[in-house]
Amino acid sequence: MNLLKLLGWEVERATKPYLILITLLVVAQFAWLGFFLWSETNMYEEIRRTGTPDYVLTFANYLGGTPFILSIGVAVAAMVFFSFWIWYRDFQGRGTFMMRLLLMPQKRMIVFGAKLVTMMLMILGLFSVQWIALKLQYIAFSSWLDSQMIPVGGSFEQAIRFDGALSPMYPASFVNFLIHQVLIVLVILFIFAFVLIERSLWQRTLWSPIIAILMLGALIAVPVTAFFFLESRLFMDEMMVVVGLGLMGWMSVTVWLSRLYLTKKLSV
Amino acid sequence: MIIQFNTRAPVYIQVVDYFKKKMALGELQAGEEMPSRRELATELKINPNTVQKAFKEMEEQQLITTERNRPSRVTTDEHVLKRIRTELVDEAVAVFVESIQELDVTMDELVDKIKRQYGEGNINDRSTGS
Amino acid sequence: MIEVLGVKKRYRKKQVIEEVSFTAQKGEITCLIGLNGTGKSTILKGIMGLTPFDQGTVLVDGKPIDLNRVAFVPDHSTFPIHFTIEQCEAFMRDFYPKFDPKLFARLVDEFKLFPEDKLNELSKGTLAKVNLALGIAQDPDYLLLDEPFSGIDVFSKEQIVELFSSDIMEDRGVLITTHEIEDIEYLVDKAVMLNRGRIVREFDVEDVRFIHGKSIVDVMREEYGA
């Protein structure tokens, strides 16, 4: 109950920067689409004047353009940045909101939970907005080219399925989708653990982020090394189990570590 | 109501002294209701515990009486009120004598001066006063 | 009673709090006095679990601290500065079960605050009053205040001092840190003096006036040799 209430506050506080990010993303993509269609149409006209164009345009041509890939990169970077910022924001300046959160007569893990769910909601929201934007872009793309009598090849689904940046975002099966979400949560958990360790080292110097990185690095490296050691001796099925267990282990250790630091060691 | 407190003397005794003076001057009549402890603390901007201590002291010196759940009242005992007056005069004279002794003044000179200055003070009071 | 028992804290290579033990009683105002940078805030934050001590124990009425019963008022805002006073109140109501909106309304009224004001529009004195109101409205048994008078105007000081002698504070235990004792000289029951990370004096203020004829500042002068 209190977790939900706190989630409400977190979401409200994140709404403004989030809406700005989404608007920028969509506007930038449509601007790029406009430019892409304009230059392609010109080129097609050019070729038509001298002969017959012998190629078709696909939606993948548009998706493969640097500006589009860049816009996805920026969105990913923004989410990574926000995973840090959602904590560091509360340690900022004289108005340290973290103090208010830690003084709440509530379990401290609700702070952790609310921030984690906020991040997940933002990421899933971003995926859905991007999906809708892609659909609209495809409609604009094909109807414009139709109106210019330029042949369009390939379907929407094909274009996305084979795109390097988009296929991880829109996996073909539900199981794949879940696996991707688990990986995303894991990245966020690592970032959260880093912040909590770093903020718990009261003697804050240049060393504290380094110490935090080393601790987290060890946490990540140990199972990875163990895995490479095992890899050659395992069959495919066994490997899946080991990887699954490894991921679960990572998750629980990271949450346990975060909980320890959040409840016992964090300093404001 | 403003008391200029001295930081080096217990505040509760200064509060007691303040009320003694008011009683001696008749500003607080015998049997009159005292202000509530809470009001007094807020007004004087001092700790309520200190006011409580001052009231207890005044009760012990029989300056005020408190019945259960009623506001305290100034004593109606004439002897006590007279005693306060004597006490205050004695204290003031003692302070005066102590400081004048350092100046090595003869008794005659002193009495003479007191008569003149104290007399003037009274005349001034009368000419300007009520 | 708040009991601080043998607490220690290091910061980098410096032992900020060597070893500190003292008590603060319910229904009394206890003042933690020390020059700037002697670890007064660190002790309050340590009691509240905001910067955990390296060693030692804190007990409130014999038990580990319960945040429902102890409130902390730091010397700065604990809300994002673009929050309005109303938003701060809404947050407190959501997560502090004992937060009393009626008491808060009374304090807002007495301090002449405007709930729709944003924190970053307020003067330091007004902000101090907002912090105090948010702290007291938690209806705590114990209230810890960090430098409530530092850098605020004389009228805000007066209003705050008046509040401490009013019925709103009745029966609460107050632990206050300050380096400007003059503001609260007549409010304090007990003084705890801190120097170089240790308690150097712990005394009943009226007793020292009565027995030694000394003010708090006199004792400070002896201890700090200023």
Describe this structure in words.
Chain C: Residues 2-221 form the ABC transporter domain. Chain C: It comes from Exiguobacterium chiriqhucha RW-2. The complex is a heterotrimer of chains A (268), B (130) and C (226). Chain A has 268 residues and is mostly helical. Chain A folds into 2 domains: 1-170, no CATH class; 173-268. Helix content of chain A is 79%, strand content 1%. Chain A has helices at residues 2-50, 59-63, 66-88, 97-103, 109-147, 156-161, 174-200, 207-231, 236-265, and strands spanning 57-58, 152-153. Chain A has a two-stranded parallel sheet. In chain A, helix 5 (109-147) crosses helix 7 (174-200). The longest helix of chain A has 49 residues, at 2-50. The relative contact order of chain A is 0.11. The mean pLDDT of chain A is 89. With 130 residues, chain B is mainly α. Chain B folds into 2 domains: 11-77, Orthogonal Bundle (Arc Repressor Mutant, subunit A), CATH 1.10.10; 79-128. Chain B has helices at 11-24, 37-44, 48-60, 78-101, 107-128; strands spanning 64-65, 73-74. Chain B is elongated, with a radius of gyration of 18 Å. The two termini of chain B are 22 Å apart. Chain C is of the alpha/beta class and 226 residues long. Chain C has a single domain, classed as 3-Layer(aba) Sandwich (Rossmann fold), CATH 3.40.50.300. In chain C, 31% of the residues lie in helices and 27% in strands. Chain C contains 7 helices and 9 strands; from the N terminus they run βββαββαααβαβββαα. In chain C, helix 3 (101-110) packs antiparallel against helix 4 and helix 4 packs parallel to helix 5 (154-164). The mean pLDDT of chain C is 92.
Key structural traits:
heterotrimer, B: 130 residues, mainly alpha, Arc Repressor Mutant, subunit A, 2 domains, two-stranded antiparallel sheet, 5 helices, elongated, disordered C terminus, C: 226 residues, Rossmann fold, six-stranded mixed beta sheet, three-stranded antiparallel beta sheet, ATP hydrolysis activity (chain C), transport (chain C)
